[in-house]
Amino acid sequence: MTAPLREELGADAIPAGVDAETAVQLDLSDLERLRSRGRMRTMLALLGPAFVACIAYIDPGNFATNISAGSTFGYLLVWVLVSANLMAMLIQNLSAKIGIATGRNLPELCREHFRPPVVRGLWLQAEVVAMATDLAEFVGAALALNLLFGVPLFAAGLITAVASFAVLSLQQRGYRRFEVAISFFLLIILLGFLYNTLKIGFDPGAAAAGLVPSFDGSNSVLLAAAILGATVMPHVIYLHSALTQGRIKPRDDDERRQLLRFQRVDVTVAMGLAGVVNLLMLVVAASLFFEGPLGGTATIEGAYNGFDQLVGGDAALAFALALLASGFASSSVGTYAGQVVMQGFINRTIPLALRRSITMAPALIVLAIGVNPTDALVISQVVLSFGIPFALVPLVLLTRRADVMGALVNRRVTTLAASLVAALIIALNLFLLVQITIG
Q: Which positions, given as ranges, span the membrane (predicted)?
């Protein structure tokens, strides 16, 4: 058994009655030792990477776009959320697969298979994406601290930095602790919106009608593009491949296929939960604000005040706690992704504290000079939308190559589907970029 797996799973990963030395002599693979524990315990042990990745799909940027969509257009754009979530499942499955198939993460593979100028360009834009990611996540968490406790935004940003360091430090003690912490934050977000949904209620028939694709003017198209831009996050495309690349070392192609099947379950469950959270955000906003006294509420602060005025302080508290959990979790995941990006693209590492200080500097500047938090979130989403193709296109190109993926190379239908998704995301995000630029 490899040392990392032994640390994570403990002695009970070895078949009953067999000590570690005997297990090595039996030449059992890591996966064989895991499977000796039973199917359910094996599944639970292998779940986790997608739960870390899915936090980016419910970060503070999603709060802003989903609330705006529900309050402005009601249930009209439910179909956009569902479609975006299905796209996310495909993309994250490909990212998880490339780590399992190659034992390398996406930035490392880009460095190995693309020309140096291309690699440098990909790295530089990825660093800009990291700063934009920090901007959205720091501003969201700082705003939550401000709403909950009245903490000034700049001080709240510093508190967020400390909290994200604390969460990320768990990863140094084993990936399982970090995954559990992120899953706990996910649970808080889910419970917060479940509580508000049950308390406020919504029209199931109208929500179901929103599954039929339609728009209502150019503003609805713009908001649909924003939802998609806030949903597919470039940094977790890089990160997910790193989360699966060394988790369990497969012995052969058969074990790689087995691991891939487990990862599909992981992605389906985690992205499914993220999709539920996003959907609950939208239906709560549609039920409470659409065509009501606070119709058109498009800011997080406005939504918080609306919950307080129309429902009660408990609903506002649940909303703010969900936002805080989202900011803390997504900021730590963003830092982790930044480490993967730098080490993968240029094979360099810098101290975590220094890296964190660099990437969070723009967010702290924004908070210090008093920029409107919601405006800052919108700007960050535009930058992130521009970065999506630089992660997604290399992923599609590499997963279709048999010399890279071996037995796990994409089928033609998978490559076609991924290419269509990439083209659609690029087109809609460019539309979003152009519209905001000229508007």
A: 43-60, 72-91, 149-168, 180-202, 222-244, 265-290, 315-341, 353-371, 377-398, 418-438
